[in-house]
Amino acid sequence: MRRGSVVRDGNRWRAMLDIGAPGGKRRWKRRGVTIADPDDPASVEAARQEAERLLEELRADYATLTTDVKSVGQLLALWVDEQAQRQADGELEASSYSHVERTVRLHVLPHLGRAPLGTFSPADVLAWQRRLARQEPPLSPAMRGKALQVLKQALRWGVRMQLVETSAAEPVDPPRTSGDHGRAASLAEVQRLCAHPSRHRWLFVVLSGLGLRIGEALGLAWADVDLDARMVKVGQQLQRERPGPDGPREWVRRPPKGRKVRSVPLPGFVVHALHEQHVQQAGQRTAVEAAGMEWEDQWGLVFTGDTGAPLHASGVGRALAKVCDELGIDRLTPHDLRRSCSSLLASRGVPTRVRMAVLGHSTSRLTEDVYTRAYDPDVVSAMDGLDDAVVGGIQDRPSRVSQREGWDTAGNGETPA
Q1: Per-residue pLDDT tens over the stretch 279-311
Q2: DSSP string covering 35-49, please?
Q3: How far is CA 312 from CA 38, 220, 276, 304, 318, in A?
Q4: pTM (2 decimals)?
Q5: E strand or H helix at 94
Q6: I want to staple 47 with a disulfide (CB 3.0 to 4.6 A). Which of 35, 58, 225, 290 is the partner?
């Protein structure tokens, strides 16, 4: 139980809670109750009981703060607990909590956890960053910068909560990055990738043709695809998240980055790829059910594993690297295919605003018209142009594919009557 008391002060009862002594100065939180009739014992007792209740409220409100914080590790533990509570209250995305918890656990606490908070300085932060760069394997500049940002967030919170006087991390600049943000495949590489008969061939075609983020592609459901209108709605991304600090990781579908839903016209070769993916998935589902097992897909996803389970982004990345090795080209990542889509559109003279609408890049000017721009004739024309450029990579592609007989937009394995 935290140190606290209820004391009488004239015509008031005061609830007082000791919340520690950051910087050597002890701090108290107080709440008071006025006694309605100081001469009436029942009124005095009622006010005292109300003060006791207020003390319990203070203890609950300051449960994570009523402690003497003496080390960086203690402050980080309090801050991570606070982020966990924010996640539980719906104020913080589970993916954001997972990021800060993992960063603190792996990259901050092992180096700075025992550092005394009272003497913690910018020099200590700089030395920590250099240790991260020298360790085996060394942490990349981008990851060191992210770790520094997490530490800054924790210390800023400590300053606001008056647990520490200043943030020693603020004067430290993040490490400079190389500026290497991956690469974009050439048109010839995209064509070869589209033609290669790999397990995830149609996923690679969709990534290259629509410029989706990998989470958006893996979270795409058949219900999001409208072949009659040749349009796909990008409104969910697939992630694995922990529902709480100690819970197992679970599959969830979340709104895409920036929480902006967008609609993207489908080039003909992507329509063909989606049809072939549907046929392939239907065969997989039939085989699973014939073996007496249950199809595992709960969302009607376009891209699934052999038993209907969601695909892991890391597994898709490894499969793509293997295909690149087989083709004898420099390795690509799923995000490189997104860059490839943008690069191919740019090479055909597609304006920046149109490419931003296709890729879902966020700016203030696109916030209100991202939906309408997807139906902009310029966007449709741009995607048709991309179809003309890439079509050589897919053999026997129909010039136009509308909704085919047997197409299951609900993802439930049923054929429309």
Answers
A1: 999 999 999 999 999 999 889 999 999 999 999
A2: -S-TT-HHHHHHHHH
A3: 69, 14, 21, 9, 10
A4: 0.60
A5: helix 94-103
A6: 35
Structure token digits, residue 35: 């006694």
Which amino acid appears at position 191 of this protein? Q
In the numeric block, which tokens belong to residue 42?
């029942």
Q: Phi, psi (5° rounding) for residue 251? A: -80, 135
Q: Looking at 35-39, 184-188, 244-248, which range is the least confident one?
A: 244-248
User: Which DSSP symbol is given to 362?
Assistant: -
pLDDT digits (tens, 9 = 90+) for 154-213: 999 988 887 888 999 999 999 987 655 667 888 888 889 889 999 999 999 999 888 899
Beta pairing, strands 231-234 & 262-265? antiparallel
Which residue is listed with tokens 């409220």?
57
Between 141-160 and 94-103, two packed helices, what is the crossing angle to 10 degrees? 100
Q: Contact 128/113 with Cβ under 8 angstroms?
A: no
Cα-based distances in Å from 380 to 61, 141, 210, 265: 55, 39, 12, 6
Could you give the strand order of the β-sheet that contains 12-18, starting from the edge strand earlier in sequence?
4-9, 12-18, 28-34
Cβ within 8 Å of residue 178, ≥6 positions away: 141
Tokens coding 324: 């690149």
| DSSP result, 239-252 | EEE-SSTTSPPEEE
Which residues, including other chains, have CB under 8 Å from residue 1's CB and lie 6 or more apart? 59
Specify the amino acid at residue 412.
N
Residue 205 structure tokens: 């075609």
d(C-alpha 139, C-alpha 268), whole Å: 43
184 or 328: which leads in pLDDT = 328
CA dihedral 193, 195, 199, 202 (to 10 degrees): 80
Q: At what angle do helices 377-390 and 268-290 cross, to 10 degrees?
A: 70
94 vs 23 pLDDT, higher one: 94
